[in-house]
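Hi R.,

Quick one: here's the CDP-diacylglycerol--glycerol-3-phosphate 3-phosphatidyltransferase sequence you asked about.
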Amino acid sequence: MNISSLPNALSILRIILTVPVVLFLLNHEFSWAIMLFFIAGITDALDGWIAKRFSCQTRLGSILDPAADKLLLVSSFVTLHIIGFLPLWLLAFIFIRDLMIVSGTVGSFMGDSESENILLSPSKLSKFNTTLQITLVLFLAATGLYPSLSEWHTILFIIVATSTVLSGADYIWIWIEKAILQEKQK
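And here's the predicted structure, written out as tokens:
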């Protein structure tokens, strides 16, 4: 394997790690879930760094990386809801935002004839939101080990809900600006 294929391999590893993370959460094996989720987080940081550092960014990687993130996070959130650690209202916020982003991205690519040359890149607010969501998964798994942490649930739920809504609004704003710019160029 050469260095240029390593970022995509790391994204694929993150997709594979989703299964054991979910299984460990379902079985209340929180130490293992935290460890594997942390490893997945490291692969997320590494794949982007390697791709940028060694100039091996690809369109596949720009799709694979966020898809791996979404799969891991949404699967973890659904599982945390199933085991009673995450409220349905927050799961709905996260799911609706992610569905909107995926739909908007697919829609913008279908309407753009030059889209095959475009690399997808998340907004800064989206990156911050993803960091908060990762923190929430790790925190909720940690409360399985240390129940006294649960007194902080509500505060973290509100912070993540706020960043999720703001990030979704940010994407809508970006898409509106792009549509206006494209109309002006016609």
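The mean pLDDT is 89.

Cheers,
M.
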